[in-house]
Every structure is written in C-alpha cells, then in structure tokens.
Amino acid sequence: MLQSIEGDILHQNSGGRNNFKFKDYYQKVREKLFSTFFVRKHQIPVAKQGYNLNRECSLFTDDGKYVIVVSAMFVSATSQPSFYEIYSNNEAMSPNPRHQLEDYSIHCVGLGSGVLHSSIDFKCDKIFPSHNQGLYLYKNILSVLSVQHQTIYIFCVVEGKLVQTHKIGRFCFDDDELLLSPQSSRTNEFVSRQPFHDVMFNSLKHRLITYLYKDALNRGRESVQRFYQHFDFFEDLRLLRMQLLDEDHLLLKYAGVDVVGLRIQEPNSQPSCFVVYNFRNAQVLAVYENTSNYLLKIFEDHPGIFRQADAIRGHHHTACPDVYSSQIQQRFKDTIVNAKYGGNTEAVKRLLVQLPIPAQLHSASPYLDLALFSYDDKWISAVERPKT
C-alpha cells in the first residue's frame, strides 16, 4: 500500500509533528495497514454470554490446524457457589481479593474450518491463562493447572476434541478411590464424605512427601531430622505452575500457600521447590530447591530440555543454547551477585524464577535473533514476559 502512494503526496503532507495534515494522513495510513496485510478469513463466536476472551492466551497445535483459547467470567456475587464447590478437596485454596474465583472455558477452534470444535468448562476455579502460564501444549497433549483446586488436567487434542486422559491431584489414577475405600461397612461413609474432610494428603502431595522422606533416609540421620523439622513447610506447599517436559513428564513448581494465594508482595524471595513428575506411572523422579545450583546448571547448559515444545514446532534457535542468550543470562547473574543484598544464592533464585517456562512464548522472528540483529535486550525480548 505504501508503494502505491505517490511521492508528491508524501511531500505535501510531510513536515514532522507540527504538520497537522501529515498527522491526519499518517493516522489514515495506520488504520489501513492492518487490513492491507491481513485479510479476515473467519469470524467465530467463541465466548459464552458474560465471558471474555483472554487476549494473552493462545496455543497453536503443531500441525497448524487448531488454536486453543480461554474465556473467563468472574463468579457472580449474587450466585455464590457452595462451600464444597470452593473447597473441593483438602488442598483447595482460600479465595481472597487478590485471588478471586472465576468460571473458565477452554475452547479448541479449527483454523481452516472456522469452527468451534469443543469447549471444556471449569467452574469456580483459579487458572492463570495470561501468557499461557496455566496451560501447556506439547504436541497434541494439553495440560491445565487448576490452582484453586490443586489439580492438573491432561487432555489429548483429537481432531479438535479435548479428550481428558488424566486428572492429577486428590488421586493420580482413576481407580485410586476404589483402593482407598475401606473394605467394610464404612464404604458408604467414605464415598459420601466430602473430599474437603479427608484426613490424608492427596495422592500427588503424598508422593512428593514420600520421595523427600526416602531421600532424607538415604542421606542419614541428620537429613531425617531436618525432614521432620521442615515437615510443616512441606505440608504447606501448593502447586503454583507447571509445564510438560515431554509426553510423560511434568515439571511442577511448589510454593507456600501464601505465595500461591498472592498474599506476599515479594514471592520470588520465598522458598519453593521444583518437582519432576512422571504422570503416566505417578512417580516423583526428582525434587530441587529454588536455590539449587545443580538445577541452574542443567537449565544453563541444556535449555532445550525445558523448551522441547518450541523445538518440535521448528523453532530450534529458541530451544538451543547460544552465546548471546548465555551472555545475557551471565550478565544478569553477575548483576545480582554484586548487588548490595545479592549473592550467589539470590542470583540462583532469580534465574530459576523462569521455570517452568510457559509454552509458545519464544518468538521465532529472525529480527529477534541476536545472531542476525543487535538490539537493547532491556527494551526488546524474544520472550513475551508476563506483566509484573
């Protein structure tokens, strides 16, 4: 479109910011630019009445056939959910003004057909869809983290349909409830009792604490004593974020209940831990503190482990280590180490805040490739950063 504009017209409307004719003309050009480069193919009604689409959440399947988006609506004050809808299990979070509950719908839309293929509803929940923090798509596997109910849902995208394959939280397998039911006359009592009143840990938390105890047992008596000393902290842990590492493994981030409930102003300074979890066989494989130099070393030397989804989609330069990103990270680390209240431990914490890495936030644009172009990384980044 700009090529079709005659030079004399541009000359007549030139003169900089003081030329009002140029301002009006420039505004008209800007308004037409988008429609010049992008042509509307479909207009698809997705969100239900009262729901709003989250413009900062979209996940595209590897074949380019479908896009997954999220719509949400705050829970109405006139129709408050029941107690057990809010506290669906004994790990559920307590709502507060900074942790308000919403109703969510996750939609799978066909890009070629322009058809809404399926929608999944989450009532009275807290999911963080902005910048894909609460959802992760790896190949055709979609994981969703319900922070409110401390539950991870695994779906398989099959021809546009979202088919649930796993629900991880209170139970890790579908038949766990049958195994836990007392084989006695009290069976009906167990089935009818609300999960909020469970006296045991949920299955996922139980596996985490069991792993920590066995690890302490292998290390010796002092480690076992420290395990008991910090048991209240382990009991207080709640799921904050997650990502799929591959088709079988999840990287989970646990933090204190006040951190997850957004009650602390500086959450990144609080202790937390990362868990590598195989959801196929419900096994905790490793646990790292957010001060772990070993985990940071893995992240620095092998970032592709945490960005496999980008590599599969063809964005290899965003998933592979390079000298430029390493320099940026090292410069940031040195700044924290040399700061007044810094140090190596604080630097490790600040760097590991990036984990788990949300899906599809690394731009594949060649203009953001530091091997080709130079720019100030303080103002421009190949990673879309969440608002702080």
From TrEMBL:
One GO MF term attached to the UniProt entry: ubiquitin protein ligase binding
One biological process term in Gene Ontology: positive regulation of proteasomal ubiquitin-dependent protein catabolic process
Annotated GO CC locations: cullin-RING ubiquitin ligase complex; nucleus
Protein name listed in UniProt: DET1 homolog
Protein species of origin: Ciona savignyi
PANTHER family: DET1 HOMOLOG, DET1 HOMOLOG DE-ETIOLATED-1 HOMOLOG
Pfam name, any one: Det1
